[in-house]
Design a protein that fits this description.
Length: 345
């Protein structure tokens, strides 16, 4: 009788105890205090480590972070070296590594002061043509894309015009230098057309600024048109058709519906165009020519900054490069959120 009772107690769990516990919630082999019924103690079984893990550390994630850290360091190393160099004296530049800090004796702000004094006028000249050229090319590209996408123009007319815009993107700057020079020298004389402006005491060298504005607008319209057209193709046709049925003209539809919806793409185009125009040196060399001109843009002055018969003043050149890059950085910061939205769209 005793053996049968023991066998019953050690048998499989009944329907009311599916996990093998008794009515008090204690397994037959384990007491409530973690001790076994025979007086021993229970031991935990070790689980096998997951692949890619070592003692609870995810090896794959660590390797990924190391690779990302290496890429970030590789990308930022030139920027760090240039920024550190801009605060060094000439002796510190010669005696220390480019990425090494200058130290107390080798630190100076003199290079930044000289760079700002040399570039501040050119910075203003660059603003004079970069801002109007950016705004005009963006607006004209938007209206051209609107006509090629949403208007009632027949496709047999849209396709050839669109092909011309696409072809305009692939024309290299070098291919138009000679025709560009002949156009502004022989066919259209800005100095003659704006003679009343020079009579006010403004130097006629600023005719080159006007030429740069028109040139950059003409070169920027094709890429702006293609960018805006890809954006306008996602605008709801039902919304535009509803406005047309209510009697709105094409101009009103653009002004009241399309233009307000274009803010993200305008941010993309403005950042792209401003960066391209601000950093362009080739057209500046052709149309303005010399850094001694009162209308010389900042990129033209920067090209010769810190260069002399004695050699290169690398600290001065680095300070000038970072100072000249501040406007483009400001544009990115100002339109960064809209830029991300426009790219995602």
């Amino acid at each position: 009788m005793t053996d049968e009772r023991d066998a019953t107690a050690d048998g499989p769990a009944g329907p009311d105890e599916p996990d093998g516990t008794d009515r008090h919630g204690v397994t037959p082999a384990d007491g409530g205090d973690g001790t076994r019924a025979d007086g021993g103690t229970t031991t935990a079984t070790a689980t096998a480590a997951e692949p890619g893990r070592l003692d609870g550390v995810d090896g794959y994630r660590v390797a990924l972070y190391l690779v990302l850290l290496g890429l970030v360091s590789f990308y930022l190393a030139p920027i760090e070296s240039g920024l550190v160099t801009s605060f060094k004296t000439g002796t510190a530049v010669a005696e220390t590594a480019p990425f090494a800090p200058p130290g107390v004796d080798g630190f100076t702000l003199e290079k930044w002061r000289l760079a700002i004094d040399a570039l501040i006028v050119g910075m203003g000249n660059s603003v004079l043509y970069a801002v109007p050229a950016t705004v005009l090319s963006a607006f004209l590209g938007s209206t051209a894309a609107y006509g090629l996408t949403i208007s009632d123009w027949a496709d047999r007319y849209k396709v050839p015009v669109l092909a011309l815009f696409v072809a305009g993107i692939f024309i290299p700057y070098q291919a138009v230098l000679v025709p560009l020079t002949q156009f502004w020298s022989n066919w259209v004389s800005v100095e003659s057309l704006l003679s009343f402006v020079w009579a006010l005491g403004i130097s006629n060298d600023y005719a080159g600024i006007v030429e740069l504005i028109v040139t950059h607008v003409a070169y920027g319209i094709p890429i702006c048109t293609i960018l805006f057209r890809s954006y306008y193709k996602n605008i709801s046709e039902e919304m535009v058709e509803s406005a047309r049925l209510d009697g709105a003209s094409l101009r009103r539809v653009y002004r009241r519906i399309v233009l307000p919806l274009s803010t993200p793409m305008f941010a993309v185009v403005l950042i792209y165009q401003f960066t391209q125009i601000w950093n362009d040196l080739l057209f500046t060399l052709v149309l303005v020519a010399t850094e001694s001109s009162p209308a010389a843009p900042v990129v033209l002055i920067l090209a010769g900054l810190g260069t002399s018969l004695e050699g290169q003043d690398f600290a001065l050149r680095m300070a000038g490069a970072f100072f000249a890059a501040l406007p483009t950085l400001a544009v990115y910061v100002a339109f960064g959120e809209e830029f991300a939205e426009g790219v995602a769209t």
